[in-house]
Amino acid sequence: MHKTLLIGFLAFAFSCGQTAKDTAESVPTNEGSLKKNTIRYVFAPSGLNLRADPALNARVLAKLTFGTEVVVDPVLVGAEMVVEGLKGQMVKVTADTVAGYVFNGFLGKLPAPQNRDIEQYAKQLKAAGVAAVYKTWEVPASDSNHYEVHHTLSLPGSNDLQGWQECWLIAHRLGFMDHQEEFVFAFPGPDRNAALTNLINGQKIAVRSREQQSDGSRLEDYQIDALEVSDHLWFIGIEIATDDQGQYISLSEQIRAEGYGQSMAIDRQGDQFVLTTMSFAD
Q1: Residue range(s) of every CATH 2.30.30.40 domain in the chain
Q2: For burial by CB atoms within 10 Å, which of 63, 167, 233, 250 has the most?
Q3: Closest alpha carbon to 132 in 167, 92, 91
Q4: Do 222 and 210 touch, CB atoms closer than 8 A?
Q5: Is 123 helix (H, G, I), strand (E, B) or coil?
Q6: How far is CA 33 from the centre of its chain?
Q7: Which of 25-39, 189-203, 262-276 has the highest mean pLDDT?
């Protein structure tokens, strides 16, 4: 029996990133130095090039995979650049015993998840000194046999494009959306079309979108017919809310299938990001 899935989300701010390209725009910078022996983690989904010199076209020494821990030299190198909407600079890092340069726009502050266990990831963060809070609860089946499971994970993070990117990638690495093994939306950064149609399996899926203006804010709603790429999913959608300055307010993702549905959202509460997932069976 087909049922309607209605999921609403409050406005929220968010951002996440993708793989760095060898093109950039130089802009002035007043950013200071980092602390000595600063630890960062690679958050480029398909890896980050470690280069011999501080330039995006320098010789590649190695490709650092998602989640690789690096030690960052305290001195930033060169002018600030913008790569795929992320601001940053070339920095010298050491991965294991290999030293080189990377674009720090794709370096995250939080350790990457080791698996899809959300509770275990919260413990992993706490062991690393990160204030993370994990909660879960269930809504038992009603007369209509509708059963829900909710998970939330609160994380510290900067309210900028890089911080939202980091949370988006963490959510998907943790399996907040179970369809990720087949395909997944890339982070809907400044280049919406590229992010929303370039799925993980390389297929190009047309999206339908509509925008609503209310008090200067904008809501973008993208939908694809999941049956084009999957024989058991009906619908996949994503909503992006931004304020009148273009700052992310909220992002949500939903799927619907026969007897099953799931939603994921990222919200900003104070100085924390709150990642929420809800799955149900009916």
Answers
A1: 25-108
A2: 167
A3: 167
A4: no
A5: helix
A6: 26
A7: 262-276
Query: What are the φ/ψ torsions at residue 235 (nearest 5 degrees)?
Result: -150, 140
Mean pLDDT of the 66-84 span: 85
The one-letter amino acid code at 96 reads D
pLDDT band of residue 146 (cuts 50, 70, 90) is confident
Q: Is 0.70 topped by the overall pTM?
A: yes
**Token representation of residue 143:** 């007369």
- For domain 25-108, give the CATH number: 2.30.30.40
